[in-house]
Amino acid sequence: MAKSFRGGIYLNLVQLAEDNYNKFGEYRYLVFDEKDYTNLEMLRYSKKMSNGLRNLGLKSGDNVVVMMPNSPEVLVSYQGILGAGCVIVPVVPALTERELKHILLNSGAVAIVTSLAHLPKVELVREEIETLKHVIIVKEGQVPGTTDFWDLINDSSDEPISINIKDDDLAVIIYTAGTTGTPKGVMLTHKNLYTNAINSASARKAKKDEISLAVLPMSHSFGITIMNMSFIHGNFWVLMPRFNVEETFRLIEKHRVTNFPGVPTMLSLMLLAPPEVRQKYDLSSLENVTSGSAPLPVETLQTFQKEFDCIIREGYGLSEASPVVSTHYIDREIKPGSVGQPIPETEVRIVDETEEDVPVGEVGELIAKGPNISPGYYKMPLETGNTFKDGWLYTGDMARMDKDGYLFIVERKKDLIIRGGFNIYPRDVEEILHQYPKVQEAAVIGVPDPIMGEEVKVFIVLASGATAREQDIIDFCKQHLSENKCPKMVQFLDNLPKSPIGKVLRKELRKLEGE
Q: Which residue ranges form the domains of the chain, and what is each CATH number?
């Protein structure tokens, strides 16, 4: 299954767990909720999952949605789905019914793996998804119309399935916000994800004896890459279902965690923990923190490094790049405010509107090329053509590069709001607000927030004669949007600033917010 590519030996993701065991033998691989799992146990569970899916009738190329918080079952599902020759479609459990329906329809998912807590959401849309034949749930006790996750595994063989998986075969479809506000399915191949993991690890010189705290959602491309890196380098990791400051401190102390991949919001919340909480725990084992998914304020970086006596290396990426584009190398200078240098085999350019390279130090759009770049968006040829050109990914992010090749992200070309490391597209919120009878017009922007990075703010023009309070608007949004997309601030205006052709000028709203 190995294959030569650009002078290196790259493997598809099905082989990662097998090769991990062949190289390192059986070892303590994972701890979750005080229970240990070895790499061999996880490997056997994954093979059983692969056979279980085949026994249900799934075939190579079928798409399988996984909608669960972090747990060992997520990791078993991922490797099991790939081992069956199928494609992982990871989604955030907090999705609304409307968003889940779109993803199930667009992906043509044949099965979904979820938990009992999220089953009601699935049942609301199940009858409308003709392709969805199987609902596999992690639970205790029987639920009619579903397949029990552990029964499926325990009743299946742990023999590997003999299938031919090519490096360029589709492995994962990750849905992300699009220019229309409709989630786009980013297609990632086995080669995309494997090369990104091995090149990212090479840049930071990952070691066998690292102990990593895994709290990033496994539904996020960053989280998937951390999982793949652990297989490649034989690391032990501590898995958390969700982020909690004091629990993070407790686990760092208990397991002597050395490595923590996170997002700026997590780092801010750790800094804001009361001294009496932080001082309860010995955090001296922490050596390296990797920050990604959103800009990290320089002040936060410097304060965190001082308070926790560790090194933060900020990087940059996006799902379309599997996701890492650049990072701070472990043996090179760290430049605060920079997202580092491109990882091995990834080429970047800063271009102007004519797609010509700009001089060193000048701002332009960041584009990237390499084995980690997605082949495009699932069933969206027009969007694919606009974003991927001649092998180059046009990120939509404005950046500059210094003489040493360090990248600095200046601003986002798109109007995406990044809250706690997750993308929110303004139109998603605006579409809901326009369903509220009292609202005539609505516009959404992101405003700076010291904890979440950005928060959602809406500007409202009420319908003639209508009255509404700020809380009325927020409550309406909570009925139709996931919690992270709901606005935290509302401002009422007589009119929205617009261009001569009637386009809402968000830059004027940002200026108004600044004032």
A: 32-167 (3.40.50.980), 192-412 (3.40.50.12780), 417-514 (3.30.300.30)
